[in-house]
Amino acid sequence: FFIGSHGKNMPPPEFSGPPNWGEEARDALQKRFGAALAVAAGKDDLLGSPLGYAPALIFNDRSLLTADQLQRLADTGIIHSLALSGMHLGYATAAGCILLWGVVRYRPSIFLRCSRAQAVILAGLPPVLLCIWLGQAPITLVRAFFMFLFWGLLIFLGRPKVLLDGLLAALGLMIAMTPLALFDIRLQLSFAAVGAIALALPG
After folding, report:
1. pLDDT for residue 12 is more than 70
2. Which of 44, 46, 75, 76 has the most CB atoms less than 10 A away?
């Protein structure tokens, strides 16, 4: 439960230790993405540019956003959109569904082997894992992935109602892995919000 702060005159963070292959691949991809953005903007320095939101939403890198930009997001109440979470995994799952829709148009026999819900889980898993890797697996994304994982498992087990059970299973796993996470306000609000949605849905 440490709190960090940053300012204009503070030194940049220092990293030590050799990166693994996944970190090197993500860093190389992020550099290529940044170079493409610079070409699109027609300038090398993207600090404060609207294009700086793209690395924040994809790679969880807010270094190109200024304090004024973040303050405007906070003032308008949409700062949460920059925190990679279940909303972004939802977009990733939707991308998998679009791909599934295109495949099913040519191979409708897929639904003879699995139900539509099971096919959605299988189609959504690769983009969900890609989203977690690109976003550097922050706790908010990992938490949402556990929910997705348990919901998918219960669907494959033939459970018709999975939302609340999958939520409680994900919560139990996170507390078992990190007991102090129970006192994390982000976890409390996230699970409370999803739990309220689950209870409010018609039976």
Report:
1. no
2. 46
- Taking the chain, what is the end-to-end CA distance rounded to the nearest angstrom? 39
What distance in Å separates the CA atoms of residue 115 and residue 112, rounded to the nearest whole number?
Answer: 7
DSSP 103-126: HHHH-GGGGGTS-HHHHHHHHHHH
The DSSP secondary-structure symbol of 188 reads H
CB 149 within 8 A of CB 111: no
C-alpha to C-alpha distance for 81 and 140, rounded to whole angstroms: 12
pLDDT of residue 25: 94
Of 162, 196, 160, 189, the C-alpha closest to 80 is: 189
Tens of pLDDT, residues 106-137? 999 998 999 999 999 999 999 999 999 999 88
Angle between helices 139-156 and 163-177 (to 10 degrees): 130
The DSSP code for 37 is H
Query: 47-76, pLDDT tens digit by residue?
Result: 889 999 999 999 999 989 998 999 999 898
Tokens 């007991």 belong to residue: 179
- Supply the mean pLDDT for the chain: 88
Place of tokens 């290529």: 32
Cα 201 to Cα 160: distance, rounded to the nearest angstrom = 14
